């Protein structure tokens, strides 16, 4: 939200130089490539590309990119996925402001910082992990993941086609191919499955597609 972004600017500007502020995950990837910031502060729930997908795109071109997630998602599964994806920080939005500054400083030094309330559980690890060979998410292409995220953002197939520069028929083809692969029967089931698997993150009900979702330090 814009008010949150302005608050972060006021919090961080005394110690850091803010070189960019973007509105969605796709813009985050493009701005990071152009500006090459020392640290990126990003949300997980962003339009176009969620934080996890944006991080994966960034690491394709810069494996050493430093990303700190600032998020409302307090589940340890999100923190685990963030760190496995290469993030250096995971801070909850309801944490003390100084915690974000600490996480950024740690990232600048190449160290990892996780909100203390999640750190202990993260270290213990999952009690029983899933069988990777039985994970259907690995069968999805990057384009299909992008389409699922946009569907979760509430975009229609026609809107997705315009945004991605592909035909409406291609969007429908990918959607029905995924539904067939997963044994699902409609778009709502597909989006619900993707959210449960952590492939996409739903936008907060009060947010819109044009509101800021990621910052660059």
Word description of this protein:
By secondary structure, the protein is α/β, with parallel strands linked by helices. The protein has helices spanning 2-12, 25-35, 51-61, 76-84, 97-108, 116-124, 142-152, 157-164, 168-182, 187-196, and strands at residues 20-22, 40-42, 67-71, 89-92, 113-114, 214-216. Strands 1-6-2-3-4-5 form a six-stranded mixed β-sheet. The longest helix is centred in the last third of the chain and has 15 residues, at 168-182. The two termini are 17 Å apart.
Net shape: globular
The percentage helix is 40-55%
- Largest sheet composition: 6 strands, mixed
In which order are the strands of the major sheet placed? 1-6-2-3-4-5
- The number of E-state strands comes to 6
Q: How do the SSEs run, as a string of H and E?
A: HEHEHEHEHEHHHHHE
Strand content: 5-15%
Mean pLDDT: 82
Q: Count of helical segments?
A: 10
Radius of gyration equals: 17 Å
Distance between the termini: 17 Å
Alpha-beta classification: alpha/beta
Which keywords apply here?
6 strands; six-stranded mixed beta sheet; 10 helices; alpha/beta; globular
Please outline what is shown here.
It contains ten helices and six strands.
Describe the secondary structure blueprint for this structure.
Layout (H helix, E strand, L loop, with lengths): L1 H11 L7 E3 L2 H11 L4 E3 L8 H11 L5 E5 L4 H9 L4 E4 L4 H12 L4 E2 L1 H9 L17 H11 L4 H8 L3 H15 L4 H10 L17 E3 L1
Parallel strand pairs: 2-3, 3-4, 4-5
Antiparallel strand pairs: 1-6, 2-6
């Amino acid at each position: 939200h814009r008010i949150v972004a302005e608050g972060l600017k006021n919090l961080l500007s005394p110690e850091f130089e803010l070189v960019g502020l973007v509105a969605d995950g796709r813009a985050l990837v493009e701005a990071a490539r152009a500006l090459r910031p020392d640290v990126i502060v990003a949300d997980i729930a962003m339009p176009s590309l969620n934080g996890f997908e944006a991080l994966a795109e960034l690491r394709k071109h810069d494996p050493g990119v430093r990303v700190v997630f600032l998020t409302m998602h307090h589940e340890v599964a999100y923190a685990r996925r963030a760190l496995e994806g290469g993030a250096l920080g995971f801070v909850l939005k309801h944490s003390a402001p100084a915690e974000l500054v600490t996480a950024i400083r740690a990232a600048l030094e190449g160290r990892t910082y996780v909100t203390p309330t999640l750190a202990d559980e993260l270290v213990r690890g999952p009690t029983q992990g899933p069988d990777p060979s039985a994970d259907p998410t690995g069968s999805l292409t990057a384009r299909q993941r992008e389409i699922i995220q946009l569907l979760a953002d509430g975009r229609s197939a026609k809107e997705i086609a315009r945004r991605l520069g592909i035909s409406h028929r291609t969007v429908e083809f990918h959607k029905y191919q995924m539904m067939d692969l997963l044994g699902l029967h409609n778009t709502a089931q597909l989006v619900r499955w993707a959210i449960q698997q952590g492939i996409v993150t739903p936008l907060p009900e009060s947010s819109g597609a044009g509101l800021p979702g990621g910052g660059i330090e």
